[in-house]
Each structure stands twice: as structure tokens, then as C-alpha cells.
Design a protein that fits this description.
Length: 620
Amino acid sequence: MDSKRFKSWLKWFAPICACAMLSLPGVTNGFAAETKRVMILHSFGRDFRPWADYARTIRAELDRQSPWTLSIQDHSLIIGRSNDDNPETVFVQYLSALGASRPPDLIICLGAPAADFVQRHRSELFPATPMLLTSVEHRRIRSESLTENDAVVAVAHDFPAIFDNILRLLPETETIAVINGASANEKFWLGELQRETRRFESRVKFQWFENTPFQTISKEAAAFPPQTAIFYHLMSVDAAGIAYEGDTALKKLHAVANAPIFSFVDAYFGAEIVGGPMFSVFDGSQQAAAVAIRILGGEKPGEIKVPPLGYATPKYDWRQLQRWHIGESLLPPGSSVHFRDPSAWNRYRTQIVLVGLLISIQGAMIMGLLHERHRRQLAEVQLRQRLTELAHANRFAMAGELTASIAHELNQPLGAILTNSEALDAMLQSPAPDLAELKAIAADIRRDDNRASDVIRHLRSLLKRSPPEFNDVDFNDPVRDAVEFLSVLARSRSVDLSSSIAAIPLPVKGNRIQLEQVMLNLIINAMDAMSRLPGDQRKLMIATKRMEDFADVSVSDSGPGIPTDKLNDIFTPFFSTKEKGMGIGLSIARTIVQAHRGRIWAENQVGRGAVFHVRLPLAL
């Protein structure tokens, strides 16, 4: 709420509030006779730490120590985090209206802004009402403005003790970053801090952020160099004019900072700060409550003299010490360490004993199971090795069957090379050789040489013995290579071999040589199945296509088909329908397909022949 709206609101609210209180004489008189009215004036807000902790503890101590019924009202100073003085007049009017019928018996001011406010407006704010200034540093008290109706329970900062503590715990510290806000109260303490840190300038560098928005401070705190420590003083308003409620700024800083954080208020202790010498909220609140009770009991506030409270015995958060690798041997004598994790034995002694007994009972069983598991894994590894060796042997056997076809494939380009070489030699003997013709012959020789090299390379890759590696493969490629490799064998066996390769890639994750071996097995088996048919009836069709998220390959023949009762046995090791078959080709094919997370099956076609399907998941 800005000052103009607040003034407008108070113009009608204050008189109404005063009239309402005056119109209840019976209630007021009865209430006055039985209760003591206490007004707590907050500097920054009811939930702003550490003053919120002081207020809560003071309330509890007042309830505990008071022999009277207490009526406690809380009000927050609206200018505590602002340099704007305009709302003060109407705020004074508001407070005066609340106590117009009967002033409070005591006003407790929490924090320096509230103390400064009541001292400047003492004559307007119930001049006869006792006031207690507490949770305030003694340097912020205007001693010359104190009256006989004012009592003070102040504290005394000892900033050098804070920085001595930091350097004691972290002797390698090179920089101390001081986090402080930009309100009038915080600017006062900035000057005090800079004055009291001069004695440390030869030992450590101080980094100040008086003109830096908190958002920027947070970003820098996340990247502080090593050997940096943070002293958090106060952040109610930053340099950009942004107000931060409660301990919001400290929590945000702790969430990103890569350096330990220290403070002088134990209200922050237990989450964000390391610890050290700090003001005790309980001790200060207990002292303030005791003075308040004395004032409510009739003592003159001006005669109650309480020396400023200093720091309590140093205490530290064990979790923060562990996080920042601070040894307990570095702590000052007499320090206390809180939040220490108890040992597992102390916390779970009974459970540990029971678990130990259970482990002892089950130990032998587990060892036995592990031994059996090891034996099984060893057997699986040996089985995979045997299957790999068997697949390699299968490829050798297949190469033997294809010897004639391979020889034919090599003879054609080699014969063409010889013929072209002889023609080239003859042309070079002529007195005027045709250069264009010579270039054409050389090109033919290179083409036939590449063709022969491809046949040899293909055969070597097929016979190569190496651990299978899975890579990105277009399933169309091994199918196309197998068809091309077996085309000569198909012609020699009078088989009409045709193919329909998908126009789109069929990417799978697999081993190209193994996939080609599967196709070679299926195609040769299909040729064998048609060996007793007349030559013009031997039809073999290879087709690839995409089926949703799968690559599908089919090998269809026009042979006699597979006996229905044998469809489930053809992939069994050593089962064969051939007279001289070993019965391992289709078994190896199934093993390879399953290793590729695929599926292979066979079925009879309508009419005549069988079709084998291989389906692998696409690598999308």
C-alpha cells in the first residue's frame, strides 16, 4: 500500500476505530481492571527474522512470568524497510486512534527502526505510556531522547569477534563477502562494518555489495573463488529497492552460495549458517520479558538499567562443519556442536543385531546361490562361444558349397582383364594407337579388377572370425548382398531368383555379416527345397518392407512346403529334412535373429511352397 492510499484509508478508519472503542465503556472498564494491555511494535514485520523469533519468545516469557491476564497487540512499522517518511504522520494517528479510549500499559519496540520511530514521536504516542526498547543495538538508541518512561534492553555487536571466528575456522580465507541491504538502518551498519573491519585489512580482503541488487549478489555468490567466506548481516531491502520478507534473502543465498555463511544471530542457526559467537534470542527475550513485567508491576522504566547483552557461548552446526571440511579442533574452547548425527550403532543397535543374525543365517545360502549363478554365467559364456564357432563353421561350409559359384564370379572379371590386356598390348604395337580406345580398355580393366576385388572382399568378410559388433545397419543392404552373391548359384541351379527391395531404408541395430549369414542360409535352403522340381518351376522371391516399427524380410519358394507337423521343429538344433543336412543352419539363424531382438518363423503358402519371415525392430 503506498503512502497516499494509506493516508486516505486512515482518514476514515482512525475516527471510526476511536468511536467504537469509546462506545463500549462497560467492556473497556471491565477489561482494564482485569488485564494489562501490551502493544508490540515491529520494525520490519511480524514474520521477519530474527525479530520474529524475539517477539515469539517474548510473548511466551510474558505469559509465563506475568501474574496478570495480558492483551497483546502487534503492529508493524510500515516504513521499517523504506526511506519514505511520508506515511509516518498517518501511522502515528492510527496508533493514537487505537489507544484513544485507553492507552496501552506498555509499548515494546522490536528493532532499531521501531526504537527510532517511537523516540522521534514520543510526545505524540502516549507520552505517559512506558516504553521498552529491545532487540536493538545500543548504538541505535538516542540516549539524549530517553525519558523516565523509557527502558532499554539492548545488545552490543562485536563484529571483530565474528571475523576472528571466521579466520580461526578458515585460516586460509582470502576474501570475506559482506552481505548487507540498502535501507536506512542497513546503511548505518554498513558504515560501522567498514570502520570495524579496517583492522583486518592486512589479513583478508573484504568485498562489499552496497550498490548491488541481491539478484546479482546471488549470481556472484554461486561463483565465489575458493578461500571465500560470507558474512550475512541483514537484507531487508536491496540496492534495487526490492524488499525481502523474513529470511527469504538468506535462504536464497544459502541455496546457491559456494562458500560458508556466518552470522551473529542464532535465529538463523540450524539451517543456513555455520555458527560461532552469536546473540541468544532466548536470553535477550527472557531479559526483555523480565523488564516488561517489572514495568507492568509499577517500577519506573527509567530506573531499570540493564547492560547491553553480548554474544553467547559459540555454537556450531555439525552439518555445516562437515560440508565445509572444518575440523572440530579449530573451534574455540567451550564451544558446543549441535545437530551431530549419532552413530549408526547408537541409533539402530537392536536393528543391527537382528540384521546381523539374519545375514549370518542367510550367508551360506547366498554364497551357494552366487556360486551357482557364476557357474551358470560361465556356461552361458561358453555356450555363446560355441554358437559363435558353430556359426563360423557354418559359414565355411556354406562357402564350400558356393565354391563353383565363387570361381565363376572370379573367372569372368579375370578373363575379361586378360582379354583387354592382350588387346591393349596389340594396340600399343601399332605405329599410331588410338588413345581414346586405349583409355576405354584401361577403364574396362579397372572395372573388372574392382569386380574381382569385391568378390574376394565379400568372401573374406563372410569367413572372418571376430566378435560380433552391433552397429547401425540398413537391413536392405545385407539382403541385397546375399541376393547378388547367390545369383550365380541360382542360375547354375536353374532357379528364377528375384527380389523386391524396399525403396525406403530399414535401419536396424545389428551385425551386417551375421544378418547376411541368415539370408544366405534361408536362400540356399529354399534352393535345396526346390532341387527336385523341373527347372521352369523353381521360383524364389526375396522381399523387404516396413511393418510399422519393424523391418520385415520374406523368402518365398515354390517347393513342396514344410510338413505341418514339422513346422515347430525346423529351428531345433540338428533337426533337418535334408538327407545329408547337419541341422544347424536354421538353428543358427534363429539364434542370430533372437540376438538382434527379432523373430523368425516359417509357414506354408496357399497353393505351394513355403515362406520364411525375419522381423527385426527398427532403430528409430
